[in-house]
């Protein structure tokens, strides 16, 4: 016998007696409801230098990427889109080392504005989420549906046997990640002597004695995610060096450090990365 599943119907949030601040409260209380991962709330109603307030600022603790969230009841419009992009740009300038995403939350995103957002998203990492209250059998529920995220990278399947992962492959896939890896290799080579780039499908490693001492994953916005492993006794030395330079990082449970970075940051801080390379070498030799 087929299970009897009730059919829900949507109700306007204002018709339920709630306003935009209520919707913000729900997101702040449970940021994971947006479907963007286990995000943390940095602040809400953040004053902008250009005027206005950013509704919610979220952060991913895994890689310090930030999400500028603008909330609107009813149908989205051009002012909502412009405001979202403006606040995203403001925060991006404030935290240039981090990856940023403009997040637009609305009850309804019409076809016209969906097309506009889709075009803009080719240049701006923009995510559109539709928020609705639905009712079934007298019970109301708040739902969130991500309807556009062009920067959401699909899971990579198994490569074809003939697929070669080399410099040409990475030049086409993410040239900026390869450039960042090359910049770091040139800086740390004197520390290790025999070091080379190791091109793999999902990352580029800096290989020393058969081990990847550093590895880079591609990210959007010409950024890359740099990873390296240290022993517990050396972690504080590395984080102190990064703190002194004001470079954000995340310490993983497996005692690795992750930094969202680009070629320019690496090239502008050679002494920092030489010291980190020395710590990494010490960790591998212990």
Task: Give an overview in words.
The structure is a single chain. This protein is α+β, with helices and mostly antiparallel strands and 286 residues long. Strands 1, 2, 3, 4, 5, 6 and 7 form a seven-stranded mixed beta sheet that branches. The protein has helices spanning 20-29, 78-94, 111-120, 167-192, 232-245, 263-267, 270-285; strands spanning 9-11, 40-47, 53-59, 66-75, 100-108, 126-136, 139-149, 195-199, 204-208, 211-218, 224-229, 250-251, 256-261. It is 34% helix and 32% strand. The chain folds into two domains: 9-149, Trna Endonuclease, Chain: A, domain 1; 169-285, Aspartate Aminotransferase, domain 1, CATH 3.90.1150. The chain is elongated.
| Average pLDDT, all residues | 84
Summed up, the helix count is 7
CATH class of the largest domain: Alpha Beta
Using DSSP, what is the number of strands? Answer: 13
**Structural class given helices, strands, pairing?**
alpha+beta
Helix and strand run: EHEEEHEHEEHEEEEHEEHH
Q: How far from one another are the termini? A: 64 Å
CATH topology of the largest domain: Trna Endonuclease, Chain: A, domain 1
């Amino acid at each position: 016998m087929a299970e009897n599943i009730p059919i829900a119907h949507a109700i306007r949030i204002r018709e339920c007696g709630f306003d935009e601040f209520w919707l913000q409260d729900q997101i702040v209380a449970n940021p994971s409801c947006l479907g963007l991962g286990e995000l943390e709330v940095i602040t809400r109603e953040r004053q902008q230098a250009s005027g206005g307030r950013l509704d919610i600022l979220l952060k991913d603790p895994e890689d310090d990427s930030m999400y500028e969230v603008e909330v609107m009841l009813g149908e989205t419009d051009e002012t909502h889109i412009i405001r979202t992009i403006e606040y995203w740009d403001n925060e991006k300038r404030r935290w240039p080392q981090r990856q940023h995403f403009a997040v637009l939350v609305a009850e309804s995103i019409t076809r016209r504005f969906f097309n506009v957002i889709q075009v803009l998203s080719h240049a701006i990492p923009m995510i559109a989420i539709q928020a609705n209250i639905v009712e079934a059998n007298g019970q109301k529920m708040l739902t969130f549906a991500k309807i556009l995220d062009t920067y959401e990278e699909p899971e990579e399947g198994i490569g074809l046997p003939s697929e070669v992962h080399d410099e040409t492959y990475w030049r086409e896939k993410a040239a900026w990640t390869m450039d960042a890896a090359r910049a770091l290799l040139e800086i740390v080579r004197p520390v290790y002597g025999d070091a080379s780039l190791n091109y793999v499908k999902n990352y580029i490693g800096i290989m020393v004695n058969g081990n990847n001492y550093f590895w880079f994953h591609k990210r959007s916005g010409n950024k890359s995610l740099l990873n390296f492993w240290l022993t517990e006794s050396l972690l504080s030395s590395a984080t102190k060096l990064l703190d002194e330079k004001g470079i954000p990082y995340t310490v993983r449970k497996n005692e690795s450090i992750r930094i969202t970075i680009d070629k320019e940051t690496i090239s502008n801080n050679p002494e920092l990365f030489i010291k980190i390379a020395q710590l990494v070498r010490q960790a591998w030799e212990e």
